[in-house]
Each structure stands twice: as structure tokens, then as C-alpha cells.
Amino acid sequence: MDPKNALPSTSPTVASPSEMERRFAFLATDVGRLCGKRFDDLARASVDLTRAQCRALSHLAIRAEISQATLADLMDVAPISAGRLLDRMEEGGWITRHANPNDRRERLVRMTAKAQRTLDKARLVGDQITAEALQGLSAQENETLIALLQRVRANLVGIVDR
């Protein structure tokens, strides 16, 4: 066997479960995963949209109207995946799309009144998940957690958007 292609003789150190559970990115990702699964469970009965569709509408609620490409970036999905998702949403009457008058290659996306009403229901589901997730935290701890997460996000936005 060619020594350049040989596997190292010692295996990398494997982190113990307790070490992994203290790593910020692991915890943040796992909390997001669990919240997403809980959202799926609760939303089936009250929201006629998928989690991805609710995420798209949430971004549109913040920004009113944005390009398809920007929305794909915010959702961390490929533009073609976002396009397919938006195709289904447009067919269902959840969004409208039109050409950007300043750049005809770009399509702008806006949510409909129907979507706004359903997003309000989705927020209620989110509120329930938040209450479940933050159970046992005091009001002050809750405020501190949110403030710290906002600071962490601001730190990363400053780096990622450079």
C-alpha cells in the first residue's frame, strides 16, 4: 500500500457525549432540530403548510418583499430548491411573484393575506414550543437567553455577511 494513502495509525479522539453537549454549535443545531420536529408534530393539525413553507413566510413577514435568490440564501437552500418550494406556494395562493422592474432576471416574492392569516397560526404553534422549551426558566433567564442569542447572531452576521 502506498504510504501516502495509508490511514493514520491512531484514530482521532472521539468526544464524549457530555463534551459534545457543551459545544455551542452542536447544542444550537440540536435545539433547532428538536424545535423543528416538535413544530412538525404540532402544526399538522392547525397549519396547512410545511415547516419549510412557514420558514419562507417568516422571512417574508420580516422583509415584506425580497428576491427569490435572497430568500434561498436566508433559508440556506439551493436556489432551485427554493424555486420549487415557491412554485408550490404560489399554486396554493400563499405567495405572489413578479419580475423586479429594475432587473427583469430577478423575481420578487411577497406573501398573500391568506399566508399572513396562516402564519399567525404558525406563530401560535411556535409560542407553544417556546413555552415547552423554556419550561423551568425564570422570566429573567428567558430574557437573558434571548439577549445572548441575539448577540451571538449579531457576531456571526457581522462575519458571514462581510
| CATH homologous superfamily grouping of the domain at 26-129 | Winged helix-like DNA-binding domain superfamily/Winged helix DNA-binding domain
Strand content of the residues, in percent?
5-15%
What gross morphology would you assign? globular
Could you name the CATH topology of the domain at 26-129?
Arc Repressor Mutant, subunit A
Could you estimate the helical fraction of the residues in percent?
55-70%
Task: Please write the string of helix (H) and strand (E) elements.
Answer: HHHEHHEEHH
Q: How many angstroms does the end-to-end distance come to?
A: 45 Å
Largest sheet: 3 strands, antiparallel
Q: Can you walk through the features of this model?
A:
With 162 residues, the chain is mostly helical. It has a domain at 26-129: Arc Repressor Mutant, subunit A (Orthogonal Bundle), CATH 1.10.10. The protein is 64% helix and 11% strand. The chain contains seven helices and three strands. The chain has a three-stranded antiparallel beta sheet. The chain is globular, with a radius of gyration of 20 Å. The termini are far apart. The mean pLDDT is 87.
